[in-house]
Amino acid sequence: MENAWEFILIGAAIGLFIGYYRRRVINKGYKNEPDRPFPSLWRQILAERVQFYQKLSGSDQKEFERKAHIFLLNVPIIGKGTEVTHEDKILIAAGAVIPIFRMSRWHYSNLEEIQLFPDQFNIPNTDKMANGLVGWGAMEGKMMLSKKAVHLGFADNEDNLNVVIHEFVHILDKQDGKMDGIIGKVMDEVDVTPWVHIIEKKKKQIMEGESSIRSYGTSNNAEFLAVVSEFYFESPERMKTEHPALFNALDSFYNEKPKRNVFSSRDRRNVGSYKKEY
Ligand SMILES: [Zn+2]
User: Which of 9-13, 93-97, 191-195, 247-251 has the highest mean pLDDT?
Assistant: First the structure.
């Protein structure tokens, strides 16, 4: 019996350590932790408006809520000529959590503040308007979003348009100092040649009018990554059917497996055959 107790105690200690590790080590950088349960109003908004959350298992929904809660406790959302409602907050937090949900480390270290405008806003120092923007220069560390576009992004969960996911993918992309369509933290140690090859092929198809990916993706590699990520998170099954090689690559990035090449050896041998697949 004594041995059985030891076994139970060791098991409990390991469980406690894993809990501590998940909360303190993986999330280091975010100092504020929830000290109360996830509000039921927030859960209701997720359940009604966010398809990604609706499709998760019960335990994954809890994890999604925990991450959204931590995000909201640490990243201020400032209204610019508009009130920030619970719906605004939760939809923005959902868009922040979706891209990093399957990543082991998910601290958006390069984001300090989100500014929410009622509708399209002026891009600083230009005469252009935007629905979403990742700041640079004096606006470094800030994200700007249109409230109207945030809500539209979650209104139709299968149109592959979601400005919040789009901008958070830019933030992830920019974490290595370069917004270049390559997520440094998961791709630094891998050969990115097959990924760049996919980008070029897909952009060519879009320009020839033979693609279900929207044409904004041809602007540059950073926009390509953001646009196809919206597609991947909103319509994974459709992407799997229509763009299998692209789906596999994105799936490898967003279901992070550290210290492993994101392309299987088979894919790497068959780089030349991607053409046939998509
Ligand atoms: Zn963009």
Answer: 93-97
**Cα 182 to middle of ligand 1, angstroms:** 14
Do 138 and 37 lie in one domain? The reply is yes
- 80 contacts 115 by C-beta, under 8 angstroms: yes
3-state secondary structure of 276: helix
3: CA distance to ligand 1 center in Å?
59
Pairwise CA distance, residues 34 & 23, whole Å: 10
| 180 and 135 within one domain | no
Distance 92 CA to ligand 1 centre (A): 16
- In a domain? residue 200: yes
Residue 261: per-residue pLDDT: 44
Q: For the chain, what is the domain count?
A: 2
The enclosing domain of 213 has a CATH number of 3.40.390
Alpha carbon of 133 to ligand 1 centroid (Å): 7
The whole domain housing 204 covers: 176-278
The structure's pTM equals 0.83
- pLDDT tens string 6-55: 766 666 666 665 555 554 444 557 989 999 999 999 999 999 999 999 99
Tell me, in angstroms, the distance from the centre of ligand 1 to residue 242's CA: 23
Structure tokens at 210: 């033979």
- Residues near ion ligand 1 (Cβ under 5 Å): 223, 226
Q: Taking Cα atoms as reference points, which of 254, 261, 276 lies closest to residue 105?
A: 254
240 alpha carbon – ligand 1 mean position (Å) = 23
